Amino acid sequence: MLLNHTTSKIVERKALTVNPAKTCQPIGAMYAALGIHGCLPHSHGSQGCCSYHRSTLTRHYKEPVMAATSSFTEGSSVFGGQANLLQAITNIFTIYEPDIIAVHSTCLSETIGDDLGQIVSKAASDGKIPEGKHVIQAPTPSYVGSHVTGYANMLEGIVKYFAKKSDSLKNQLNILSGWVEPSDMRELKRILKLMKVKNVLLPDTSDVLDSPMNGKFEMYPKGGTTIPEMVSMGDSLHTLALGEWATEKAAINLDNQCKVKFSIQDLPIGIQATDRFIQSLAKLGSVSVPESINDERGRLIDVITDMHQYLYGKRVALWGDPDQLIPLAEFLVDMDMKPVYIVSGTPGKTFEKRMEKILSKSVPEAKYKNGANADMLLMHQWIKENPVDLLIGNTYGKYISRDEKIPFVRMGFPIIDRVGHSYFPTLGYMGGLRILEKILSVLMDQQDATCPEESFELVM
Amino acid sequence: MVKKLDITQGLPDPSKVMDEIMAKYPTKIAKKRQKSLVVNDPAEGKEIQANVRTIPGIITQRGCTYAGCKGVVLGPTRDIINLVHGPIGCSFYAWLTRRNQTRPAEGEDNFITYSFSTDIQDSNIVFGGEAKLKDAVREAFEIFKPKAIGIFSTCPVGLIGDDVHSVSREMKEELGINIFGFSCEGYRGVSQSAGHHIANNGVFKNVIGNNNRDRIGKFQINLLGEYNIGGDAFELERLFDEAGITLLSTFSGNSTIESMEYAHTADLNLIMCHRSINYIAEMMEEKYGIPWVKVSFIGAEGSAKALRKVAEYFDDAELSAKVEEIIEREMTKVEVVREAVKAKTEGKLAMMFVGGSRAHHYQDLFSEIGVTTVSAGYEFAHRDDYEGRDVIPSIKIDADTRNIEDLTVEKDLELYREDLAVKKEKLLKNGYEFSNYDGMMPEMKKNSLVIDDINHWETEKLIEYYKPDIFCAGIKEKYVVQKSGVPLKQLHSYDYGGPYAGFEGAINFYLEMERMLCTRIWKMVTTPWKTDPEIVGSFAINE
């Protein structure tokens, strides 16, 4: 047994986290910054953070992930990191020539009280930022929230710096894409194109973190939201923010700064959340829904009706980030599955309310928890008490899957032991079809591997 | 196709590419980096700048002190709880990401699959985190009943003034198990290296010597600086076992806390990774009189040499005969594969920039299959790892490293092994080499380019210049390098393969190199219609 110390006996914990269902802010900021074109993320702290964040993103994408760091020493930790950051800015623009440096902080620089805004202003007034180049920043203290908070903070930092209101309103929507995969960003763009809705998608990591092999390393790949696009966001008709945790701050900022009204919606995962997304697009963009999208929806429903017997009543444990877990739980319920255990290390008050609304009637036995001590040890202990039929979450679930012999679908961040997540979307009806296919495959593989020989089925 | 670098007349002088690299740097940076790039000349013995602070914004490979302490040295010990005191990230990122394999016996503790953290919040930053740390220790004890708990400090801990050492003492008293703390905040020192030193000090003070158990073998050794990545230590355990050598403790691959407690009862310490563990070797010799020798089990030749070195030390006819028998048998197997692979790999060029030890060790494996290392370097090694231990007296400790404690160690009057000291004197007279490491540079070719703390810009320029057939580094470099059409072998994680140590390991590595150096896919990177004549005229479908 890989996790042989985990037993069903649950001891109340107030201080110890074991096997977390979250990580820290800066990696989210790094990911968001990679979704803007010509940008080099910069970690203002000691260099270990930057290495860890780059490594984790690299393991997840099997792609280059570039970022620089202020490389604090003990001296700068005592006297402040201003000199380090100023030197870094000069070095980065001279050696690596990005258009934008996106600076985030760490627990180190936040604890000693470095003010990123002030240091960046000083860099500007000292002439350290070349003409036409930009340095943006966002505080990302690791001891607040989670990696999702870091993503939200950087997204806010991006719109704060770039979005401008001019006199001419633009006939376009802002889509804040939330923390999703490059494949999902690509899918969002495909849907928007089918709907004929002009838009700015921010951030956009497609063509950055799924770049082709052609024998030449591009430090700044062709993808990413461009500066003119980001500037124009201040003139858009409306902002559609996907995922409250990841995008609310940026949406509010766009409203405050440029008077662009916003609505916040779930990530379009599953049937109902995608329905809401499509309806919003139709309404906000004053367009009708094309037949091709109706067909995609119909295909998803068709497969669920075809295979319902394998899904009905199956108990599922989920972990990950709130923006994904909420629509995913809803999707599972829509397929008559039972998401019975749900944990997220990411804090936030609306999580429990949303889950209660989705689950109280259809899965009254469900247990869910987020924030402090809502970790994978707790979830595993719940499973030990009363088992489940399926696990859905990031790679770390493979230990529970093997110990408990539970079929396992990888979704979320990070997935560091399989490929696919960066190439095939989970958003939209087509993404729903992919989630469904993955679920059915592991459930049926399990049946094939464990059923008595006499009931081994050819046709399923 | 790009023309390969011709090395038939020896390696070309890389000064031109060095100038190109420097030309892009701001003057001050060029001046600093200049000292860390050295055109090697083994006859001359050149000086390299190493173990100095990282240049901000340069895109280094380096990590931090916490990674060196928790991630590297203590992480692999399977039956203690490594509790990380800090925000969640540090604990999350070090959770199962280094491949120190463990093989506990039935019923033995194994906490390797777990990540333990105090997950401190903003209120802890403001009011201090000691109370939460104590509660976390109590909860860990209640739930997991470990034999020992190590507490690891992360960046904010030192700044807010939490004292992990006093908390450890108090909790040790309260719970009755060994609990010890490490001040391995990420900002200390300039790299992972400081973390190694801090871990060595902590283990030496709090663990080694706690158990004076009786001898269990005729030839008792410890293996220091072997972390069992991909099962390396298992392969070595197999060899020692067969030879009749008792491996008391490994620091720290597949280790237990108990094995570390009686490490001081060994007769000899073998050092694999000099950088991370030479401190413990030195301190054990001072306190207990146990001599140490540097060995390398990377490469078949090196493995044979290392086994003979151990046999020679014990000077026992039966042991020597057994060791020769093993070497002969294993080398026969190795040679078959080596010859077959070498026919395909001879003349290829390699570059490697890895941690603090492997960039040297793996050159042996490469040369066994006819691959030349044209350029190499470490992330965080010190001058002695490059130039040899002879230069230690001339190394200046700079301001960034000064605060890393050097323990004062005294002879243990009761346990000091006078017999081993006498044995060492005698062997020294016969030319047996103790306490020495010659470093990487003397073994590299003239005009090879040695680089400390290489960064992304330098990596790009070197690939352009050398057009190597294979590049060895880590996960952050892997896909960067591969996008330029050069395969990269990870020598930290072994790309999830291994073992590569010992004889079996050598065979695995040869075969892996055959796969990587002779694979078809790299030849398909260019699209065929890029070279074919363009099609003129077209008609569109459905438009």
TrEMBL record, chain B:
<keyword id="KW-0479">Metal-binding</keyword>
<protein>
    <recommendedName>
        <fullName>Nitrogenase protein alpha chain</fullName>
        <ecNumber>1.18.6.1</ecNumber>
    </recommendedName>
</protein>
<dbReference type="InterPro" id="IPR010143">
    <property type="entry name" value="Nase_comp1_asu"/>
</dbReference>
<keyword id="KW-0500">Molybdenum</keyword>
<dbReference type="GO" id="GO:0016612">
    <property type="term" value="C:molybdenum-iron nitrogenase complex"/>
</dbReference>
<keyword id="KW-0408">Iron</keyword>
<dbReference type="GO" id="GO:0046872">
    <property type="term" value="F:metal ion binding"/>
</dbReference>
<dbReference type="InterPro" id="IPR000318">
    <property type="entry name" value="Nase_comp1_CS"/>
</dbReference>
<keyword id="KW-0547">Nucleotide-binding</keyword>
<keyword id="KW-0067">ATP-binding</keyword>
<comment type="similarity">
    <text>Belongs to the NifD/NifK/NifE/NifN family.</text>
</comment>
<dbReference type="InterPro" id="IPR005972">
    <property type="entry name" value="Nase_Mo-Fe_asu"/>
</dbReference>
<dbReference type="InterPro" id="IPR000510">
    <property type="entry name" value="Nase/OxRdtase_comp1"/>
</dbReference>
<keyword id="KW-0560">Oxidoreductase</keyword>
<keyword id="KW-0411">Iron-sulfur</keyword>
<comment type="subunit">
    <text>Tetramer of two alpha and two beta chains. Forms complex with the iron protein (nitrogenase component 2).</text>
</comment>
<comment type="function">
    <text>This molybdenum-iron protein is part of the nitrogenase complex that catalyzes the key enzymatic reactions in nitrogen fixation.</text>
</comment>
<dbReference type="GO" id="GO:0005524">
    <property type="term" value="F:ATP binding"/>
</dbReference>
<dbReference type="GO" id="GO:0051536">
    <property type="term" value="F:iron-sulfur cluster binding"/>
</dbReference>
<dbReference type="Pfam" id="PF00148">
    <property type="entry name" value="Oxidored_nitro"/>
</dbReference>
<feature type="domain" description="Nitrogenase/oxidoreductase component 1">
    <location>
        <begin position="64"/>
        <end position="514"/>
    </location>
</feature>
<dbReference type="GO" id="GO:0016163">
    <property type="term" value="F:nitrogenase activity"/>
</dbReference>
<keyword id="KW-0535">Nitrogen fixation</keyword>
